[in-house]
Amino acid sequence: MTTLETLYTGIGGTFVTPPEILSKKMDQIKAFVFDWDGVFNDGQKMSTGGSSFSEVDSMGTNLLRFSHYLRHGQLPLTAILSGEKNETAFYFSERECLNYSFYKVPHKLTALQYFCEKHQLRPEEIAFFFDDVLDLTLAEVCGLRVLINQGVNPQFLQYCMKNNLVDYVTSVRGGSFAVRESTELLIGLNNNYEEVITGRKINSEAYQTYLSERRLVRPGFYTLGPEGIEERL
Fold first, then answer.
1. Mean pLDDT of the chain, nearest integer
2. What is the pLDDT of residue 49?
3. From the DSSP assignment, how many helices (H) and strands (E) are in the chain?
4. Alpha carbon of 48 to those of 51, 104, 143: distances in Å?
5. What pLDDT is attached to residue 44?
6. Calpha distance 10→14 (Å, rounded)
7. Which of 27, 47, 112, 187 could form a disulfide with 67 if both were Cys (CB 3.0 to 4.6 A apart)?
8. Residue 80 — φ and ψ, nearest 5°?
9. What is the pTM of this model?
10. Is residue 190 over pLDDT 80?
11. Alpha carbon of 121 to those of 80, 116, 166: distances in Å?
12. How far apart are CA 104 and CA 94, in angstroms?
């Protein structure tokens, strides 16, 4: 068992795919796509339709993008893909300079196909973070799949494992820093964790260059219209 595997199984994470194979999958990843509800939060909704996120998870997404930048010399593509309209997700996308925020897309594969066509991506070049049934059409095709473990759905977890829909299951639930757990895991698979943390700590030249490029990214907000996925301002 590798040191990385020991660290994450030690806190209760589950590797459905062995870490050495996940490392090879990471070689191909060019984009990170996140579901919102149940991933960045516990899935509870306010009357306005809003739901929250944490700074702990936010930092995880930033460090993961920096890790990718150090390894590949360019920013990864990023997107939030939600079946609902959520102003907090919009705010997060703008603040963190993500490329896309898809919302109110009931059949999420439609948005993924748009995303891939827009950037000449293959689904196997996407790492996907998800938590529930509506995400499974994406989990079926994406190259690396992280399932946020809600702790109350063992049959669903079993279904995902049996049907090759997940590579790693988090130890904690959405809203309990599951995004941070899984983003740090992927940084470890990139084999540059110390470089990432040290670079961020000292605000290295590499981090400053990464941040300057990240700040140039302006998110697009897309939803399902009469003729398919369309941009909405």
1. 95
2. 60
3. 10, 9
4. 9, 14, 34
5. 81
6. 10
7. 187
8. -105, 135
9. 0.96
10. yes
11. 16, 4, 20
12. 18
Only one residue has tokens 């990432």, namely 196
Q: Are 171 and 148 in contact (CB under 8 A)?
A: no
CA 158 to mean position of chain CA atoms: 21
Q: Which two tokens stand for residue 195?
A: 């470089």
The CA distance from 163 to 208, in Å, is 42
Tell me the three state secondary structure of residue 120.
Answer: coil
Q: How many C-beta neighbours within 10 Å does residue 24 have?
A: 12
Structure tokens at 173: 């639930």
Give the H/E segment covering residue 33. Answer: strand 31-34
The per-residue pLDDT for range 201-213, each reduced to its tens digit, is 999 999 999 999 9
Per DSSP, the three-state class of 3 is: helix
Burial of 57-72, coded b for 16+ CB within 10 Å and e otherwise, reads bbbbbbbbbbbbbbbe
Neighbouring residues of 31: CB distance < 8 A, sequence distance ≥ 6: 76, 77, 78, 79, 115, 119, 121, 125, 126, 127
Please list the residues that pair with 78 across neighbouring strands. 32
**What's the token pair of residue 25?**
């999958």
Q: What percent of the chain has pLDDT over 70?
A: 97
- For tokens 């690396």, the residue is 144
Looking at residue 164, what is its pLDDT?
98
- For residue 87 the two structure tokens come to 């102003």
Place of tokens 């990843």: 29
Q: What is the DSSP letter of 74?
A: S
